[in-house]
Amino acid sequence: MDMDGDFLKVRAMNFPRSIMLGHGVIQQTADICRSLLFGHEGLIVTGSQTYEAAGKLVDDQMTDAGYAMSKVFVGSTDQDNIDKAVEAARKADAKFVLAIGGGSKIDISKMVSKETGLPFVSIPTSVAHDGICSDRASIKTKEGAPLTVSATPPTAIIGDTEIIVKAPYRYLASGCADVISNLTALNDWDFARKIRDEEFSSSAYALSKYSAESIMKAAPVIRPGMEESVWYVLKPVVASGTSMCIAGTSRPTSGSEHMFSHALDLLHPGKAMHGEQCGVGCIMMMHLQGGNWKQIRDALKQIGAPTTAAELGLSDEDVVDALVAANKVRKERFTILGDTGLSRNAAINLARTTGVI
Questions:
Q1: Helix (H) and strand (E) counts for the chain?
Q2: Which residues contact 354 (CB under 8 A, 6 or more apart)?
Q3: What is the pLDDT of residues 249-271, one digit of tens each?
Q4: Distance separating alpha carbons of residues 344 and 325, to the nearest angstrom
Q5: 285-318 burial, b if ≥16 CB within 10 A, otherwise e?
Q6: Both 250 and 340 in a single domain?
């Protein structure tokens, strides 16, 4: 309220308009594009492997349905690949974008959509994290460090379980770990609300918590090679990403556990996947927060996600280094790590107590 007592609060929320999840739904891509009233010139953003896995199928389907499709093959989510995709969209006079692939292809498409104003459809071939439907993109700086930026959420999501189950199971397990790690992110957000009077969304909080708890509950039946396992994971992953759209920030899904993961990316890049690192970080941060860290560790073990430094491909020292550096990654974000972070001895004790080292 202003000084006169008038209510002046405003919040904009952008959500996907159409979500199709399940067996064989990729066959409905052209119908979904038609229902969304896209133009007839489109761009497929994909990679060489993901084009073979699903891109060609969609390309042929769209062409048969009368669409004029161009395609661009991109790699990691850096500015060069973003610029390449933006240029391809403009050259093709595209009216929409189909993002076919993993997180990098979807994040690049988010940035293309933000840059050009074109709607895009998220068609994941794997689910390694909850970014398939969020309004945040993780891009690499020139130094190779990940940077989370505001982007455009997809207009539609087509999550085909028949396609996704063919990806290495490690990706799915990583996606589960990423969503489970919402639990410590939410605790951090609640701390910030109570201590710093940070803006808070109870609806985003509830949706993010539902997502994490759903994965925890389904942990015993999430197994390699089972399409039904992908089905159990997809809805919570979509809900997790949507919680960010509601909040207008990554707060519902990113806290001290993500700061630990980002510290690892800076200090020891390329050793493990983002979701895997967040899962291990969640175990340790939940211990700091006074919660049931053993329950999180056990769920990750059931799913087959890493719970130790060795399983991440890291040394004990690597984990300790990241714990000590974690609070410096996003200084503006208040978490259980506080302003001073962990001393080296405290980091060693934390990692040992939780069995991470």
A1: 16, 8
A2: 283, 284, 287, 293, 297
A3: 999 999 999 999 999 999 999 89
A4: 10
A5: bbbbbeeebeebbebbebbbbbbbbebbebeeeb
A6: yes
In three-state secondary structure terms, 115 is helix
Q: Compute the average pLDDT of residues 56-67.
A: 97
DSSP secondary structure, 287-303, as one string: HHHTS-HHHHHHHHHHH
- Residue 241 sits in the same domain as residue 316: yes
Helices (DSSP H) in 226-315: which residue ranges?
A: 227-247, 256-267, 274-289, 293-303, 309-312
By the 8 A CB rule, do 98 and 26 touch? no
Alpha carbon 309 to its chain's center = 22
- At 278 the three-state DSSP class reads helix
* The predicted structure's pLDDT at residue 305: 98
Helix, coil or strand: residue 202: helix
Query: Is the per-residue pLDDT at 222 higher than 60?
Result: yes
Encode 39-75: b = buried (16+ Cβ within 10 Å), e = exposed. Answer: eeebbbbbbeebbebbbebbbebbeeeebebebbbbe
Radius of gyration of the chain (CA): 20
Q: Which of these, 83, 88, 96, 100, lies nearest to 42 by C-alpha position?
A: 96
Domain boundary residue among 167, 185, 203?
A: 167
Among 150, 167, 184, which residue terminates a domain? 167
Which domain covers residue 322, as residue numbers?
170-353
Largest distance between two CA atoms of the chain: 64
Task: Please give the DSSP secondary-structure letter assigned to residue 23.
Answer: T
Tokens 């799915």, located at residue: 172
**Phi and psi dihedrals of 70, rounded to 5?**
-110, 165
Tens of pLDDT along 134-190?
888 888 877 666 788 889 999 999 999 999 999 999 999 999 999 999 999 999 999
pTM above 0.85, yes or no: yes
